[in-house]
Queue: 2 jobs
Job 1
Amino acid sequence: MAALLAWGPLQRPAQAQGGEAVIVFAAASLKNALDVIAAQWQKETGKRAVVSYAASSALARQIEQAAPAQMFISADLDWMDYVAQRSLIRPETRSNLLGNRIVLIVPKDIATKHGAQTIEIKPGFDLAKVLGDGRLAMANVDAVPAGKYGKAALEKLGVWAGVSGKVAQAENVRAALLLVSRGEAPAGIVYQTDAAADPNVTIIGTFPEDTHPPIIYPIALTAGVSHADAAAFLAYIKSAKAKPLFQVQGFTVLSPGQS
């Protein structure tokens, strides 16, 4: 299997799969793109990458606890900085890989039934009206990048105080997406790429980029990297071959030095 998914407490696929694969810890929002990239790399080279997906916060803490990751891709700079400050990555291998957007989503069937229209996300917009008696699905707003970006945006727009008591916090952004996809929450804030990957949700608004810190996904090899193919897979992820696979999922591929 090219990738393993860890929605709850992070599993340790390196132990289950043995030492043959490059072990990658990656933000949950990267699943669709990295699954395809890992499979393509294996097809072209015969080498394997096993990817564990979870919230960047959970991944960083697992690396701190000596989890066997060879590479880390975070959904924000903060958690990459967290491991860097503890000398847990190889700084010369670090770079900014991708950009993204955050969006407001609703269940597709509800949007279709009620003819939901896109709304302008601007200062003071009526998010409470969108929620009605329901709750707003978000990744954990104190630790998970998507949740932190979403909270920052709502605060900047002056609407956080009106909805903070109605937030349903999830372990990671894909779990928040699932709450809306299943109709368990009438609205949610997720990455644009997550919304594009789920046919059961509809985007009704995109948050202006100036309402939150830049959404940047950094990548680096870990300080304890030992697999001979880890650097090769990192180079493949950053190569022209991988670029369209990220772009088709809605990511912005950053040029070297771009932020």
Job 2
Amino acid sequence: MASLRELQRSFAAALRDPAVACAVLPPANLAVYRNNASITFRETLERTFPVVHRRVGEDYFRQLAAHYRQRFPSRHGDLHWVGRDFATFLHEHLAGTDYAWLADLAQLEWLRTESAVAAELRPIGAEALASIAPEALERLKFGLQPSVRLFSSPFPVFSVWEANQAEIAPPVDQSMGPEAGMTLQRRGFPEVRKLDAAAVSFLSSLQSGFTLGDAVSSAGLDGQALTRLLAMLFAEELVGSLGE
């Protein structure tokens, strides 16, 4: 007699592949579960990657979802995590084609999804710097909000994402080249921000635990650029903690 674990594995495999026999249900009954599981999986991907879905169209997205599900079946009870490996799948599936940029677009949308469920700390304002001695500023460490996700791409995927927030979105010229930016959560809503490369380098260093002085050196910032980025940090409420 098969163990419970073996029955569960049989049922899960049969949900993804009609050729696999299932010891739990007859084929007619199993078809209902298989159809529901397939639709739920695909619709979850569509909600997680709405811009990718829009750019490739309904038919091709269905094909991608089916191939992806075979390679990366859901292993989590929460549907939120269904798309965790979709960007990796597209990177492999579309490598060497004119559509390789879609993998980076998917990565941007996934980072936005991660930001949506991250903790949101009470932001620290710029006035907190007033109590710190000037000579101690370069040793200061900035803890960014847990929802901040930084991303750099050789493709203009931030522009693609922004353009597709409108009802009618024209194609984005891929010759625009590399873009960088971040996703974050603001008051319970995930947002996308396009940033210049220096800003992403600076924020990445801070996120990695660099002191302010080391982050400035790593990003190659002058005084004017530092002032601009510090103002952005506090205006965007990105600072969750300060310390040495």
